[in-house]
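Revision sheet: structure tokens.
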Amino acid sequence: MPVAVLTLELRIEHARSLKDRRQVVRSLKEQLAHGFNISIAELDGAVTWQSATLGIAAISASRDYLAGQMQTLEAAALRMTGELGAEIADAWWEYLESESAAESDSLPAAPSSAGQPPEQSPEEPQDSAIGQPQPPAGS
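Predicted:
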């Protein structure tokens, strides 16, 4: 299943403090998250007061849908940053779809219990690459 990631590099010229920067970043994140079904996070950890990098991720069964969503997101972010007194210095997006994802479609899903790793008994070592029980050694 394809995942699209949009990276936005922001320039916040009017920011004179970390508080000014945080206000712009937080507001942009909230507006984008409210308007779109996405995940969004700050990627650079407040390196300077006048710049920020945001990562936005979306998942869908359709690459065409994701392409349209990324273009719409970029246009919305451009409009919103202008309203917040900032600008987008750079923006790019890409698909994240590994070759192993296609291979894993043919593997059986490992059971999970609410995000907890499966318990492993000493008699049944797990092959970490596949997650299937192996026969005990010496059999």
